[in-house]
Amino acid sequence: MKRTIIITGGTKGLGREITLRFGRAGYYVFALYSSDEAAAQELRGIMAAENISGLAIRHDVCSAENSLWSRSEIQAADSLTLVNNACAAFSPTPMHQLGWLDFEKNFLVAVKGAWSCSQPLIRLMIKKGHGSIVNVLTSAIEGAPPKGFAAYLTAKHALQGFTLVLAAEYAARGVKIFSVSPGYMETPLTRQWDSRLQEAIRANSGRITIPAEAAARIFQLVEDSTVLGQGENHPI
Asked: Fewer CB within 10 Å, N side or C side of the chain?
């Protein structure tokens, strides 16, 4: 059975761990990235050393470029999985210091990016009679939001809404659609933040998530036939 997975933001942090977890299980992986060539090259080295089939491929999820979707590894796959993991880089900032462009940047990557990848794949999934779409949220959408994350969290709430409307339209047609919400993770993104802020977040976070463990849980959810995939969110 030919299984293909597409991971946006797939070369660093959680995305990289998802790429490796599914690749090690025999999936053909497309790890998409927008700009960090060094991280992509490092991932390619790991994939080659472990005989993981797939590509780390430069593809801006906000662009109109669509040649990726015509590749035979996607068109001819028996099973397709999409993980919308890409996230715009940001540093926690009070809302009154943000401009609309900060909000727009987060929306473009999280919401438009998820839409632009889901649009071509959902048709294929329906045709095949099955498939999975996983949208990566955050534990910070649960309960009162932390201060300083206005643009990021607004986009994540919108992505949760996108998850629900996708499921409402396509879950009954064989496509498993759900979201996951990891806790705070140490990734290349969060490591760029002020060290005092990182310490404060770790001290006050209700859930700390290890990227490799989160990737293993996402793999389990995709593989488990008893998971409903009707728009529900899975804390991880």
From this structure: N
